[in-house]
Amino acid sequence: MHATTATPTAGSTDACTVFPKLKPLVEYLRGLTGRADLAVLSRLLSGVDLARADVERACIFGTRGYRRNVIAASEWFELLALTWRSGHCTPIHDHMGVSCAFRVIQGTGTEIRYAKTDSGLVRPTESVSMPPGYVCSANDPDIHQVANLQAPGQDLITLHIYSPRIVKMNTYSSPAACAVEAGDVYGGSAGCAQ
Q1: For the segment 118-130, what is each residue's pLDDT rounded down to a tens digit?
Q2: Which residue of 28, 38, 53, 154 pairs with 150 in a disulfide if CB–CB is 3.0 to 4.6 A?
Q3: Regarding the domain delimited by 4-172, which CATH topology (the fold level of the hierarchy) does it fall under?
Q4: Is the dihedral of CA 85, 134, 128, 9 positive or negative?
């Protein structure tokens, strides 16, 4: 599934005015002069009580994949509401060079964690169910995929912080994504000998 990114949802209006419950978080992020500390981001996200109504203006859904809706941003951070329909997922990726933390606002997400293999591919190591209020933080070498595996009609909304902004992320393939090459039919014919 492909992600789309929307420009700031609040337009020229200040994010603290449009999203008052996010004010302490936005003020902290605007004060950054370098990469944010992951523990601080996790603590801030854990301390805010959010419902869909608190970020409704940023809840625009994509049609072909999850959507990244920018709430506030600078050189040193991006604060986004990500919206996911059933079946939407990220590619398998890491956050090398970027502090990444997010909180589930509505729905239950799934995080699939991966480890590198000697082949250069990755393999799943763990699947974590993420109910509303769950906070996830990813260190540089962490490789994961986030998905909405709920039934059709069940939306997922998450609030993400990246510091600094993501310019490029490393993506990975798993054995399930390996290509298959068509070969000849055994015996040179499509039928079985009788």
Answers
A1: 988 999 999 999 9
A2: 154
A3: Jelly Rolls (2.60.120)
A4: positive
